[in-house]
Amino acid sequence: MNAKNLVLVVAIAMLAACNTGGLNRSDGTYAPGVAGEMDIDGLLVGHRLMAAGEYELALKAYIRGAAQHGINVDTLSAMGSANLKLGRLWQAEKLLRQAVDEDPDFPPAWNNLGVTLVEMGNYPEAVEAFRRAFAADNGNSDQIRDNLRLALAKVEDPAYAAPNENGTFQLVRRGAGDYLILTTP
Predict the structure, then answer these.
(1) Distances from the Cα of 96 to the Cαs of 2, 102, 138, 169, in angstroms?
(2) Domain boundaries, the chain
(3) Which of 7, 54, 67, 165 is deepest in the core (most CB within 10 A)?
(4) Confidence band (pLDDT; 50, 70, 90) for 40?
């Protein structure tokens, strides 16, 4: 390659480096990156998967959400609830206890910890968790009130099943300012 061609190649390379187009254009279009780098909220995807009954996929989405948002009360509570639905009670309890330690005034975490404790047969502690959830929510959630009522009945009679309710406890998660209910199967 002669000197004239070498200068031409270097000049083109320098001009290309100054160009704002290409793979990282400033107009909002870009080449796709590595899978998982999308700006999709893992918590939102996880909530939708939980509602669809896809608990394992929801847990994976919540883990991605934790990578996006950090480990906080929302991600801990969500991962704990997914583990509860998967029957992984010890993992659920551990995550939900971390969530209530992180934010003692977060009703869904207290409620879901109560549901986990009921599933483990620890009714007295479940009652206390439901009481804390009810107090943190200022008594606004009918679902938490129902869970508290059922847990109190279980303390008095562990074989108790509410008529027409089969004794099912309900998980609560935080949505856009609302508490959304996930019923147990």
Answers:
(1) 70, 10, 20, 16
(2) 38-183
(3) 54
(4) confident
Structure tokens at 23: 């793979």
The model scores a pTM over 0.85: no
Q: Which amino acid is at 28?
A: G
CA distances from 55 to 14, 90, 95, 100 (A): 52, 16, 16, 22
CA atoms within 13 A on the CB side of 79: 24
Query: How many angstroms separate the CA atoms of 154 and 44, rounded?
Result: 34
Residue 172 belongs to what H/E stretch? strand 170-174
CA dist 152 and 123 (Å) reads 8
Residue 160 predicted with pLDDT over 50: yes
Please compute the mean of the pLDDT values over residues 172-182 and round it to a whole number. Answer: 47
Q: Are strands 179-183 and 170-174 parallel, antiparallel or unpaired?
A: antiparallel
